From TrEMBL:
It comes from the Bacteria. The chain holds residues 1 to 256 of 385 of the full protein. GO terms for cellular component: ATP-binding cassette (ABC) transporter complex, substrate-binding subunit-containing. This is Sugar ABC transporter, ATP-binding protein. Residues 4-252 form the ABC transporter domain. Transmembrane segments: none annotated. GO terms for biological process: carbohydrate transport. Keywords: ATP-binding, Nucleotide-binding, Transport. Belongs to the ABC transporter superfamily.
Length: 256
């Protein structure tokens, strides 16, 4: 059970209330989009789920476990950013391997005396290489493993970022506007690839976008956010045909 429970999350930066009591239950394997205008708090909420930011109040539960005291690296979630955030000096393969190498490093640091002579080190390297190849095959970037990010197109870079998310076999994927740096054609293509990836993995996806069309085509449910609140969370058809709130209707109906 790797569902996510967002329970009355509040967040203020100084005097500015950015999240005003957000609650949302996301079932294991669900694809939920968070949509809303720029500045409404989508990224902040995602960062709090990921453990990159601390909430002012409320709880996040992953698979039923409260993760308040648990560091980002140990939450078993993968976050994908709009900016890709790849290491320019590392090859594609090494970029994808980063989370696994970090995990191994963390494990070794907990065994400081054993660390250097850890007999599992060589085996772990083989495992890491296999996991990287698997992720690369899934995303059809296995021919690019030796390249540097600078030698890739935007769409390929975003796939490498997805590969790096995939390789950890996370309980859930958190994607923050992953397509917004791509041109329109590539956006449509990558969108359907992400939807396919979700179907294939059956993992939980939380997908942030300000693009309601994107959300409509991919999600099992859409949460419409405005000024730090969720106005409505429902299936795309319901949001479209039966909005709870005039602000939902206006946001969904507005051209981009
Ligand atoms: P969205 O992703 O929906 O565009 P954000 O979550 O990035 O919105 O931001 C929500 C609000 O919180 C914005 O007004 C933004 O300026 C503010 N904010 C975000 N991060 C910080 C921060 N670290 N310090 C101060 N204000 C912040
Ligand atoms: Mg944002």
């Amino acid at each position: 059970m790797a569902g996510l429970q967002i329970d009355r999350i509040e967040k203020s930066f100084g005097d500015t209330r950015v999240l005003r009591g957000i609650s949302l239950d996301i079932a294991d394997g669900e694809f939920v989009s968070l949509v809303g205008p720029s500045g409404c708090g989508k990224s902040t909420l995602l960062r709090i789920i990921a453990g990159l930011e601390h909430q002012s109040a409320g709880h996040i539960r992953i698979g039923g476990r409260d993760v308040s005291g648990i560091r980002a690296a140990e939450r078993n979630l993968s976050m994908v950013f709009q900016s890709y955030a790849l290491y320019p000096h590392l090859s594609v393969g090494d970029n994808i391997a980063v989370p696994l190498r970090m995990r191994r490093l963390n494990a070794m640091q907990r065994l400081p005396l054993l660390g250097r002579y850890w007999p599992g080190a060589r085996a772990a390297n083989v495992d890491i290489n296999q996991a990287v190849s698997r992720a690369a095959r899934t995303l059809e970037i296995d021919a690019l493993l030796a390249r540097k990010p600078g030698q890739l197109s935007g769409g390929q870079r975003q796939r490498v970022a997805l590969g790096r998310a995939l390789v950890r076999e996370p309980a859930a994927f958190l994607l923050d506007e992953p397509l917004s740096n791509l041109d329109a054609k590539l956006r449509v293509q990558t969108r359907s690839e992400i939807a396919q990836l979700h179907r294939r993995l059956g993992a939980t996806f939380v997908y942030v976008t300000h693009d309601q069309v994107e959300a409509m085509t991919m999600s099992s449910r859409i949460a419409v956010m405005m000024r730090g609140e969720i106005l409505q969370c429902a299936a795309p058809e319901t949001i479209y045909d039966d909005p709870d709130d005039i602000r939902v209707a206006e946001f969904i109906g507005s051209p981009r």
